[in-house]
């Protein structure tokens, strides 16, 4: 197809190029916007810009029969990634397969597909140079949306910017100028999910262009010339009539977090898009709201009150219970419990349980203040040992004189950070005394629950809602009996997904049978022993109904130096598959398997964390899982993972291998009130059997890491709060 077939298209492309070249002195004053793909761009085409670092966006765009829902994340200032779910209605309405559209991709009235994008911003916009981005669209999928591009964007005036670019794949399908880097081989789809290296930047290339004008603070107008001919959707499938390469749109910013857009697409269709912005690094309500802490109580000078400094109090046998009682009275409103205390004349060790603050530094600061009010003047060193599941995670040493000296210092936070030391838990104080009223302890709750299943080809979104009962009984420090049971109220997870046949044990693909048959269901019931083994070594043993599909025994050992960026762990499990009625039996499948992994953890850059697990999975397959997360100081986490094992793509099924995205959002981020609760979710295709790992609660690394040096320092600014 020859380039620039319409006069309007030639005019828009030419004016964009001229504007780009003539805009040397313009200063950027407009924010990057999003396109129908949920990526930074114009309307249907990409641009050369990038979103602010750390921004997370959810976009939903619709025109004609096409709907796209996209999650995009600006991983670094230059790298962004997107996960997209596509739906094309009337897939077979005008297809050549009629009237026998019953097999393969022809069997669906609505065709659903998933895709991943990556973008890299090569240049930042400057006085003379445009912002330039290179992108891969749908680089590891079925290729429905596959394309590559180079895009450049430059401001002509502070409120007007132009974009020109060159696209390949479907972005090079209209107005081709030739194939500068060779021919483009057809995609070998197979089961999908494979990276299409051999296609990148090959085949016909075509230019695209557009302009965007920020008419007011809230209203933006856009126009573009598209290089996508929609050959599959328009020509082959006949789902809509593409009459023109020109698109026009208007977008209105309802708030800093919501933008709505209306569009006229390809000379025949109306479109609508909604974009939702989240900024994980910034709390929407500002800082954390909380009551003011007690001021540090200053000790009298020795010359004024020598008796106050006397160490004779150490000989009082009843001192420990009194100290525990008085500390807990002061800390009750902070949600902190002092479980034990040990002391000498000049130092005191307290073991605490933090039930409220997501910032461990804030909990430590509150405890140190309380100790300044309760402990005798001769005690100079406060040693605060955070406990998690009754297991000590670290030891924080605070000199009382530093606490007194620095409270009102102009640089109090940084000065105190330099004065405090964090070390491994070490040996307990020889006279450590526990509060006899704390153990055994029972807690329980009844709360709503929801369970979601995504991306099966019959229905992309299914959900159950109901009630979940949870209970927890702690016999003694480190001994935890816990469980949960559910009762479904409403939902459609019992509707079967498309038939999945693999050569593997159905360790996850039969999840719909558990959804259909297990009501009410015992989700889990297990007894766990957590232990600090000395040095930098921690241990866990769990036995019982470990998750909704498996029960058995699980053991784990973790080596995690408290001040180190790395850790190594080993986990071994022997489990049996539970019956689908969700009760107590194991006879339905009669399947038992030994699994285990060696895990390595590493903080390879500030805010970036990697985890590599190598071992045997539930279906007996062997391989490795790599996960990379971007972590924010307020507790937000956005990450992705992929698992490759010795299971073939054919045996695995659609997607070829397990992969997904995980999000962790602290409740404090959204409410502004202190809380340790978090919302966690994993976005992945409908469960497959390859690369499936035991879903056990309380693994050691995530249990202790927040209370070690890096976790405490991450939100050190809240020590004095």
Unreliably modeled segments: none
**CATH H-level superfamily title of the largest domain:** monomeric porin ompg
Major sheet strand order: 20-21-22-23-24-25-26-27-28-29-30-31-32
**Classification by helices and strands:** mainly beta
Query: In what range is the share of β-strand residues?
Result: 35-45%
Mean pLDDT equals: 91
Biggest β-sheet strands, sense, barrel: 13 strands, antiparallel
From the alpha-carbon coordinates, what is the Rg to the nearest angstrom?
A: 30 Å
- Which percent bin holds the helix content? 10-25%
Q: Which outline best applies? A: globular
Number of strands: 32
Which CATH architecture of the largest domain would you pick?
Beta Barrel
The end-to-end distance, rounded to whole angstroms, is 66 Å
Helix tally?
11
| Integer tally of domains | 3
CATH class of the largest domain: Mainly Beta
CATH topology of the largest domain: Porin
Signal peptide: 1-28
InterPro entries: YbjH
Protein name: YjbH domain-containing protein
Organism: Gemmobacter lutimaris
Give short descriptive properties of this protein.
721 residues; mainly beta; Porin; GMP Synthetase, Chain A, domain 3; 3 domains; twelve-stranded antiparallel beta barrel; globular
Describe this structure in words.
By secondary structure, this protein is mainly β. It folds into 3 domains: 7-278, Porin (Beta Barrel), CATH 2.40.160.40; 306-437, GMP Synthetase, Chain A, domain 3, CATH 3.30.300; 521-710, Porin. The chain is 13% helix and 41% strand. The strands form 3 sheets. A 13-stranded antiparallel β-sheet has the order 20-21-22-23-24-25-26-27-28-29-30-31-32. It has a 12-stranded antiparallel barrel with strand order 1-2-3-4-5-6-7-8-9-10-11-12. Strands 13, 14, 15, 16, 17, 18 and 19 form a 7-stranded mixed β-sheet that branches. Strand 28 and strand 29 (622-631) form a beta hairpin. Helix 3 (319-331) crosses helix 4. It is globular. This is YjbH domain-containing protein. Residues 1-28 form the signal peptide. It comes from Gemmobacter lutimaris. Keywords: Signal. Pfam families: YjbH (PF06082).
């Amino acid at each position: 197809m020859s380039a620039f077939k319409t006069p309007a298209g030639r005019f828009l492309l030419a004016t964009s190029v001229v504007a780009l070249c003539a805009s040397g002195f313009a200063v950027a004053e407009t924010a990057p916007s999003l396109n129908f793909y949920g990526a930074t761009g114009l309307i249907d085409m990409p641009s050369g810009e990038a979103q602010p670092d750390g921004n997370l966006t959810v976009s939903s765009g619709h025109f004609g029969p096409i709907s796209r829902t996209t999650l995009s994340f600006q991983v670094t200032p230059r790298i962004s990634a997107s996960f997209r779910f596509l739906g094309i209605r009337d897939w077979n309405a005008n297809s050549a397969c009629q009237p026998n559209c019953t097999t393969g991709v022809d069997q669906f009235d609505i065709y659903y597909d998933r895709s991943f994008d990556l973008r890299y911003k090569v240049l930042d916009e400057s006085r003379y140079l445009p912002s330039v981005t290179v992108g891969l669209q749908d680089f590891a999928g079925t290729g429905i949306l596959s394309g590559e591009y180079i895009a450049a964007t430059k401001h002509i005036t502070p409120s007007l910017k132009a974009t020109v670019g060159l696209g390949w794949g479907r972005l090079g399908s209209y107005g081709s100028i030739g194939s500068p880097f060779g021919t483009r081989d057809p995609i070998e789809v197979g089961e999908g999910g494979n990276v299409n290296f051999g296609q990148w930047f090959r085949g016909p290339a075509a230019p695209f262009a557009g302009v965007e004008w920020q008419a007011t603070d809230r209203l933006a107008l856009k126009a573009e010339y598209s290089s996508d001919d929609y050959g599959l959707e328009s020509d082959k499938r006949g789902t809509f009539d593409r009459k023109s390469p020109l698109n026009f749109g208007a977008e209105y910013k309802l708030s800093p977090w919501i933008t709505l857009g209306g569009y006229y697409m390809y000379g025949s269709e109306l479109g609508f898009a909604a974009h939702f912005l989240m900024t994980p690094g910034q709390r929407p309500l500002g800082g954390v709201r909380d009551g003011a802490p007690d001021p540090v109580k200053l000790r009298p000078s020795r010359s004024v009150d020598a008796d106050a400094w006397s160490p004779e109090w150490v000989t009082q046998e009843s001192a420990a219970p009194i100290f525990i009682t008085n500390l807990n009275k002061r800390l009750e409103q902070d949600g902190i419990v002092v479980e034990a205390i040990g002391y000498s004349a000049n130092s005191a060790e307290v073991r605490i349980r933090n039930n409220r603050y997501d910032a461990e530094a804030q909990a430590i600061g509150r405890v140190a203040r309380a100790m300044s009010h309760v402990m005798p003047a001769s005690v100079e060193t406060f040693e605060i040992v955070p406990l998690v599941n009754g297991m000590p995670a670290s030891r924080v040493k605070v000199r009382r004189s530093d606490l007194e000296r620095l409270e009102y210092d102009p640089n109090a936070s940084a000065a105190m950070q330099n004065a405090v030391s964090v070390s491994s838990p070490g040996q307990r104080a020889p006279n450590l005394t526990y509060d006899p009223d704390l153990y055994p302890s029972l807690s329980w709750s009844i709360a709503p629950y929801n369970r979601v299943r995504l991306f099966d080809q019959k229905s992309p979104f299914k959900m159950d809602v109901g009630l979940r009962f949870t209970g927890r009984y702690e016999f003694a420090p480190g001994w935890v009996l816990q469980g949960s049971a559910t009762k479904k109220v409403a939902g459609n997870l019992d509707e079967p997904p498309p038939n999945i046949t693999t050569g593997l044990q159905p360790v996850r693909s039969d999840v719909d049978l558990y959804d259909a048959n297990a009501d009410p269901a015992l989700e889990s019931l297990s007894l766990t022993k957590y232990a600090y083994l000395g040095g930098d070594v921690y241990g866990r043993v769990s036995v019982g109904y470990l998750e909704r599909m498996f029960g058995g025994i699980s053991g784990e050992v973790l080596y995690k130096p408290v001040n180190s960026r790395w850790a190594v762990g080993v986990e071994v499990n022997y489990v049996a598959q539970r019956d689908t009625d969700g009760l107590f039996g194991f006879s339905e499948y009669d399947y038992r398997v030994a699994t285990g992994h060696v895990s390595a953890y590493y903080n390879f850059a500030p805010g970036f964390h990697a985890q590599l697990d190598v071992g045997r999975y539930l279906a007996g397959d062997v391989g490795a899982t790599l996960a990379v997360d971007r972590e924010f100081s307020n507790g937000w986490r956005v990450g992705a993972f992929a698992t490759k094992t010795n299971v073939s793509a054919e045996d695995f099924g659609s997607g070829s291998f397990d992969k997904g995205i995980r999000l962790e959002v602290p409740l404090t981020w959204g409410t502004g009130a202190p809380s340790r609760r978090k919302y966690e979710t994993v976005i992945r295709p409908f469960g497959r059997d390859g690369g499936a790992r035991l879903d056990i609660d309380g693994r050691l690394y995530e249990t202790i890491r927040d209370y070690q040096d890096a976790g405490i320092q991450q939100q050190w600014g809240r020590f004095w709060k």
